[in-house]
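Teaching assistant here, posting this on the class forum so everyone can see the example we discussed in section. The complex has two components, and the goal was to see what a joint structure prediction looks like when all of them are supplied at once.
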Amino acid sequence: MENMQAVCCKVRNATYKLSLYDTKTKNDILMAIADKIEQNKENIKKINAIDIVNAKGKLSDAMIDRLTLTDSRIALMAEGVRQVADLDDPVGKVVRQWKVDSGLEIKKVRAPLGVIGVIYESRPNVTVDVASLCIKSGNGVLLKGGKEAINTNRALFEIIQEAIEELGLDKDIVGFVDNVDRQATFDMLQQAKYIDVIIPRGSDNLKKFVLTNSQIPVIASSGGNCHVYVEKTANLDMAKRIVYNAKMQRVSVCNAEEQLLVDEAIADKFLPDMLKTLLDGGCKIIGDETIQKYASDVIPATEEDYRTEREDYFLTVKVVKDYKEAIDRINANGTKHSESIVSKDEEVMRIFTTAVDAGCVYTNASTRFTDGFEFGFGAEIGISTQKLHARGPLGLEQLTSEKYVVTGHGEIRK
Amino acid sequence: MENMQAVCCKVRNATYKLSLYDTKTKNDILMAIADKIEQNKENIKKINAIDIVNAKGKLSDAMIDRLTLTDSRIALMAEGVRQVADLDDPVGKVVRQWKVDSGLEIKKVRAPLGVIGVIYESRPNVTVDVASLCIKSGNGVLLKGGKEAINTNRALFEIIQEAIEELGLDKDIVGFVDNVDRQATFDMLQQAKYIDVIIPRGSDNLKKFVLTNSQIPVIASSGGNCHVYVEKTANLDMAKRIVYNAKMQRVSVCNAEEQLLVDEAIADKFLPDMLKTLLDGGCKIIGDETIQKYASDVIPATEEDYRTEREDYFLTVKVVKDYKEAIDRINANGTKHSESIVSKDEEVMRIFTTAVDAGCVYTNASTRFTDGFEFGFGAEIGISTQKLHARGPLGLEQLTSEKYVVTGHGEIRK
């Protein structure tokens, strides 16, 4: 715990200096990090090999693949850092300014959050991604990776610190928790004096542990139980393309469709062909008796299925009476991530986008677009399904707060 | 607990309807509430008298005064509701809109937070203030007041529900926890399924209990240990006016000055007269040996004094070497509320406003302006000293979230 405080305190103190670095200085840091990663490619692979050997027999092949750094993955990592340098710097942007009767001039200005603690698992490139996004947005960052990548993460962290130090700047704007047990995570979550925000990236278990134990505000995603709702006026060809894409284009991601709702007025016309196409594509269908009429091989649905995100080749399907039932079901069972309606009725779409409580609400598009790059943010640190602070893809801007800078001329309160 | 769930669930269900009410409907509700409060003036006073009798001998006179509703206070309460009706409706405002390469049109739109749980103490007018701000911003609200005002709070809540019901709308957009013990507060804080945000208003004890036990995101103020820093280039007459006003204009509030920092280069010139004026005004001075040279009757300072918000006629004074020490002290000891520099040096002021980590940073003005009315927000539900979501005065806009409404034309992810 004492050691944890010391690590946090170092980052905190350096962060106040970082808040004064201009955009060019921050970009210089990022370019230096990218160069140094490339220069140390062989060494990174050598150290990464230790983690891979340690993981053999303990982790699945898929997990070991996520852990492995190759030449091309290292090059991509460096390229990612350079792309962050290219992004607009949100810090210092005046969001709004106005003058009040007392004479004061008030500016609402983007400012860094401060120190961000990122707790993550498995993929070591997160170390570099997260550090570069935090530096560009003026935030100090304390990194805590998983045990399976500890050697690789430490090597990347040391490269980052060296790159910063060689520029004559304070290397402690990036810190590293060199301890992989849960107790260290717990200790980190108590450091509200030094850490402003915690971002967990990884399994549901990790997020749950963080949300339960953190004394520090958390930005987290609760995953996506995303719906596509085909309303009775929908262009059914378009609906078919969207339903198929949202489900099948990539099943393992949080913005993939898990639930399909269809108005009963068009169910007979739409569902037989839609379900056949999905089944032919290798997707299993879960549904109640009504759905079982439209296709064979439908897995009987339980109530829990309507609330379950599978991230797999499964789609739960339900016929609804009208848009009101669709909205109620989405608000009851959704996870506030991404929800889509296919419709031609402008008024129904207005009601849907207003009443559906989610970070991203689509009309006539696939839910798969909820993504920092697709939104034009250039990079993302995650997707928020919370309502405070920021919803949807978290880009650089969402890694900042707003503060009021008030210019007076001797004003006092009457 | 079951009863708590039922109460929360009713508000949650009504809130989805509220999200579709237009501005006129919400204003109609507010005007009806204001009218009904005035019509029921005598009844409100009669019920309020019960709370006052119950409080006699248990609460201080000051507390009983806060509890008491008079004709003029009831009139002010109704007037406050009408003022909220006059404010701009933040809901539905398009914050930003852009088009991305895929063809999607993305709008970032202000949306209600959902259900806000407000836990408060003592003053019954909070019941009406908070309900009207939540309704106007499209949020359902669950009210839990303190035991000392339970009868008055219940009467006001019933008036609010009647006013809504008479308009043929869903009265359950406002809910009331008719149970005053801590266990009920604890139960309320577990209802993350039904409540989106908790706002505690009251004592530090209440806030601490809420922050420790809530499973729901909290917007809270940690109070204000506010600094005024007189930099060496300051206009000393202006500095004197600001220091005096920030301290003395009203001592019991969170935006009052608690700490005075003065550059050593001007201490000899500035402090003797400044301290005398404060002492003559009835303010006690706390300081180290350096400060004790400048006035008699200086109370010796402990380290704790520099971190303490007294909300009383005390000012802790410290001489600093330069603006860097001032910034470091403010960031170490401040509560991120309101901080002010008096200076003529533009570069120093730029560094101060950038590096000082607070919701509101002033140049050449009193800290006492941190207030929803003074900022032109028209009303406030509190002051945030957090960094996520919103900092500074919380007006109607800060009671909303932003969501992405994405208009497609059949777009699917490649």
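For the discussion questions: The mean pLDDT of chain A is 95. The radius of gyration of chain A is 24 Å. Think about how each of these relates to the inputs above.
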